[in-house]
Amino acid sequence: MNRRRIGVYEPLAHMPWGAVHGVGAGLFGLAVPFVLIILANFFAPAWALALPGAICVLIGGLLMCGSVMLAGNESACRPQDYFRFARG
């Protein structure tokens, strides 16, 4: 489902959940683990950097889920967003 198309993306795009979502999903959930896995393949034993990479994925997933849930609660408090989403 495209949240921007149906108009319920606003609470997730603004502070504080926009920053938490961007940093959590983008940085900790994707970029840092990718770099650590690449570095583990070339410079260090695989377990030395793969384990922190896996932990970063878990932290990123937790931050992403939490920010989406809390932004959803904020969106539910705004009637125009709630009814726009309910119409589908």
Question: What structural keywords apply?
Answer:
mainly alpha, 5 helices, 84% helix, 0% strand
Question: What would your notes on this structure say?
Answer:
- 84% of the residues lie in helices and 0% in strands.
- The protein has 88 residues and is mostly helical.
- The longest helix is centred in the last third of the chain and has 31 residues, at 46-76.
- The mean pLDDT is 78.
Concise description?
The chain is mostly helical and 88 residues long.
Low-confidence parts: none
Task: State the end-to-end CA separation.
Answer: 10 Å
| Subunit organisation of the chains | single chain
What is the strand content?
under 5%
Number of strands: 0
Give the ordered list of helices and strands.
Answer: HHHHH
Radius of gyration: 17 Å
Largest sheet report:
none
Structural class: mainly alpha
Number of helices: 5
Mean pLDDT: 78
Shape by Cα distribution: elongated
Give the % helix. Answer: over 70%
Lay out the secondary structure:
Elements: H1 3-6, H2 10-13, H3 17-42, H4 46-76, H5 79-87
Helix pairs in contact: 3-4
